[in-house]
Amino acid sequence: MAAAIPSDLSEFVMVKGNGVKGLSEMGLKSVPREYIQPLEERMMKVVSGEFIPIIDMANCDEPKVQDAICDAAQKWGFFQIINHGVPLHVLENVKDATHRFYQMPPQEKVKFTKENSPSNHVRYGSSFSPEAEKALEWKDYLSLFYVSDHEAQTTWPSACRDEALEYMKRSEILIKQLLNVLVKRLNVSKIDETNEALFMGSKRINLNYYPVCPNHEETIAIGRHSDVSTLTILLQDEIGGLHVRAPNHRDWIHVPPISGALVINIGDALQVMSNGRYKSIEHRVSANGSKIRVSVPIFVNPRPSDVIGPLPQVLASGEKAMYRDVLYSDYVKHFFRKSHDGKMTVEYAKIHSL
Ligand SMILES: COc1cc(/C=C/C(=O)SCCNC(=O)CCNC(=O)[C@H](O)C(C)(C)COP(=O)(O)OP(=O)(O)OC[C@H]2O[C@@H](n3cnc4c(N)ncnc43)[C@H](O)[C@@H]2OP(=O)(O)O)ccc1O
Ligand SMILES: O=C(O)CCC(=O)C(=O)O
Ligand SMILES: [Fe+2]
């Protein structure tokens, strides 16, 4: 016999720390009504035979590789990379560590919810913005904002701390390589001490956990959104489920898992700084009826105290600014306080001419 849905859902999921994982493990016949998405969010036309570009980074000094990166960032906002230099064991270890964190009992995980966490920079949570959302999402997350090694050592959960830090550290060269290539097309000669903080002054790593879902077609794991980062480096496992908006703005394209590859996407901050040249593309994750999935994005961001706006180097030729200057932490708070709403976050910074 299937178990009954807990009468107080937020008490069970968040206050007690069970997460959506706890709901999934009850063997429910269908998800609680709070997780049922409106029809328009469930209907998505996934096109087959179309793929985001796959770029081999082995020779990333070559102009044709650099062009491929910039072209992909302009047209697709998303691409996969292989031979990226981040050791495969580092990627495997951080996926294992993600499973290890979620395997802990709820009494351990609950120590990291917003209410209990030892630091505002460490947060275990479930649906994105439960107060604001029409329907909840079928995923749990652990979000770790990097400030210093010392803070991470003392506040990040030991089940995944070392592996998350290692993944972040070993991705540093790749992040700089990608940004150097991308900013060159924006007439910024290189990433150096004068501009590094603006492009990559803060990092957040999320450990996402997507439990098995009974009536998975009626809900969603992550709703339509664009990231607010400069760049996101996403590690996904072999299950699949990530979809990105096609360049025709109508259809969706699946991002097939490729062993050892990383998915790169442009975030809103780089869209704003490039005055719209690079695109932060809407994406979503579907729930799975038979398999658990994990993913580990590193969000590379400006510092919260930075002001983001179109770069002077981009506007130098007389191009009109499409975005105003905004304080990055205000932008991120705006994103976190509302439900996922596709590409709407960037409207916050858009200049609407009269
Ligand atoms: C979680 O599910 C997600 C997440 C995403 C994320 C996509 C990204 O691109 S993340 C990259 C974001 N950039 C940064 O984190 C760097 C800059 N950081 C900051 O500016 C600040 O750390 C801050 C995020 C603005 C937090 O500011 P602070 O004033 O110190 O803190 P609060 O007052 O606690 O937070 C404000 C507001 O945001 C909510 N919030 C904070 N952190 C998180 C988090 N990790 N996850 C979810 N929500 C968060 C917090 O609850 C506050 O809201 P209230 O309503 O409670 O006031 C993509 C897809 C996903 O599904
Ligand atoms: O899990 C994925 O494939 C994507 C996750 C994502 O979009 C996010 O965490 O912002
Ligand atoms: Fe995302």
Automatic annotation (TrEMBL):
Return the InterPro entries for the record: DIOX_N (IPR026992), IPNS-like_FE2OG_OXY (IPR044861), IPNS-like_sf (IPR027443), Oxoglu/Fe-dep_dioxygenase_dom (IPR005123)
Instruction: List the pathway annotation.
Output: Phenylpropanoid metabolism
Keywords on this record? Answer: Dioxygenase, Iron, Metal-binding, Oxidoreductase
Q: Which GO terms describe its molecular function?
A: 4-coumaroyl 2'-hydroxylase activity; metal ion binding
Q: Which cofactor does it need?
A: L-ascorbate
Fe2OG dioxygenase domain segment(s): 196-302
- Per its UniProt record, what PROSITE patterns does this chain match? FE2OG_OXY
Pfam families, A to Z: 2OG-FeII_Oxy, DIOX_N
Carries keyword Oxidoreductase? Answer: yes
| Alphabetical list of Gene3D superfamilies matching this protein | B-lactam Antibiotic, Isopenicillin N Synthase, Chain
Q: Which GO terms describe its biological process?
A: coumarin biosynthetic process
Q: Which reaction does it catalyse?
A: (E)-4-coumaroyl-CoA + 2-oxoglutarate + O2 = (E)-2,4-dihydroxycinnamoyl-CoA + succinate + CO2; (E)-feruloyl-CoA + 2-oxoglutarate + O2 = (E)-6-hydroxyferuloyl-CoA + succinate + CO2
Q: Which family does it belong to?
A: Belongs to the iron/ascorbate-dependent oxidoreductase family.
Protein known as: Fe2OG dioxygenase domain-containing protein
The organism of origin for this protein? Phaseolus vulgaris
